[in-house]
Amino acid sequence: MKRLFILLILFVAAISAQAQSYIPFPTSNTIWTQRHGNGDTTPSYFCYGLTSEDTTINLLNYHRLFKSADTIFQPSECVGGLREDSMRRVYFYDFAAGHERMLYDFMVQPGDTVDYDPGSAGIVSSIDSVDLSGVFHRRINFQSYDGNFWIYGAWIEGMGNSSVGGLLGPGMLQPTCDCAENIICFRQDGEWLYHNPAYNTVDCLESTLAVKELSENKATITLYPNPLTGTGTIHISDPAADGNVQVYDCRGVLLHQYPVQGNTDIAISSSEYAAGIYFYHFGTLAGKFVVE
C-alpha cells in the first residue's frame, strides 16, 4: 500500500511537471492566421509569420515578423520584430511606430493586474494547461475588474493570444462591433497545433486567404560575392527573365530596383549600401546578402 501511494505521488508529480514546463515563444518557422472583422462587411483574413530571419535593433536581437495575405512572406512584408527576455516577457518592435512595446508577460500569477494597454485591463484569474498536439502548454486566464471571467481568449505559452486581440493586439480588447482581430490557427514547423474553437467552421486558411502556389519555374537567383565588397553580380538563371530585382533593408524598406529585361547578370555595388543585412527578391525568388 505504501509503495502504491509513493508511485501515485510520483505519477502526479510527473504530470504536474509536464503541464508546468515552460515553453518559450516561437523564434522561426511559425504562422498565425487571423480574422479581421470589418463591421457589417465581409471579414478579411491574413497571416503573421516568422521565418528564420533575425535583425538587431538598439543592440537587441529580434526575430523578423511578417504580415501577408498568404503564407509566402516577402522582405517587403516585414512589419517588425519579436523578442523574449530572460523574464519570459515578449516584446514587439513596430517598424512603423519606431518603438517597442510588451505583448505578453508569462511570469504573471493569479491576482496580478494586466494593464499593458489602455484597452487591455484585467486581472489574472487562473492558470491551467492546454494540450496542443500532445504537448501541454501553460494557459493564463483573465477576468475583468468587475469580476466577470473573460471568455474570449487567454495567453498560451509558446503561442501567444488564443483569440480576441490576435497576435499583437490587447488580450482583453472589448470591441463594440465585429471589428476585432482574432487568432484562427497557429502553425509551427509545418504542423497546425491550434484551431480556435470559436471558428471551428472556418478553415485555418480560409478561402479568402489566397495561398500562392510555388512557381513551376526552376530558375534561381544568386548574388556574389557575399558578403558584398566592391562590385558584385546578381545572377538569374532564366534567360527569359523580365521585371525588376528589388532590394530591401531589414525593416522592409525598398532601397533599389534593378531592371532585368533578359539581362541575367546585373551589377551591384557595395557603395550604394551602408554596412548591414539586405534582402533581394525577383518574383518568387529571394535571398539575402551582407555588406561589411
Using brief descriptors, characterize the structure shown.
single chain; 292 residues; mainly beta; Immunoglobulin-like; 2 domains; eight-stranded antiparallel beta sheet; five-stranded antiparallel beta sheet; 20 strands; 7% helix; 48% strand; elongated
- C-alpha Rg (nearest Å): 23 Å
Low-confidence stretches: 4-19, 210-217
**Order of strands across the main sheet:** 6-5-4-3-2-1-12-13
Q: What do the pLDDT scores average to?
A: 82
User: Strand percentage, roughly?
Assistant: over 45%
Shape: elongated
Structural class, from secondary structure content? Answer: mainly beta
> What is the total domain count?
2
Helicity level = under 10%
List the secondary-structure elements in sequence, H or E.
HEEEEEEEEEEEEEEEEEEEE
Distance between the termini: 70 Å
Largest sheet: 8 strands, antiparallel
Number of extended strands: 20
Counting copies of identical and different chains, the oligomeric state is single chain
Describe this structure in words.
- Helices cover 7% and strands 48% of the residues.
- The chain is mainly beta and 292 residues long.
- A hairpin with a 4-residue loop joins strand 4 and strand 5 (89-94).
- It is elongated and about 65 Å long.
- 28% of the residues are buried.
SSE topology sketch:
Elements: H1 2-20, E1 30-38, E2 41-57, E3 60-68, E4 78-84, E5 89-94, E6 99-105, E7 113-117, E8 120-132, E9 135-143, E10 155-156, E11 160-161, E12 181-188, E13 191-195, E14 221-224, E15 231-236, E16 244-248, E17 254-259, E18 265-269, E19 276-282, E20 285-291
Antiparallel strand pairs: 1-2, 1-12, 2-3, 3-4, 4-5, 5-6, 7-8, 8-9, 9-10, 10-11, 12-13, 14-15, 15-18, 16-17, 16-19, 19-20
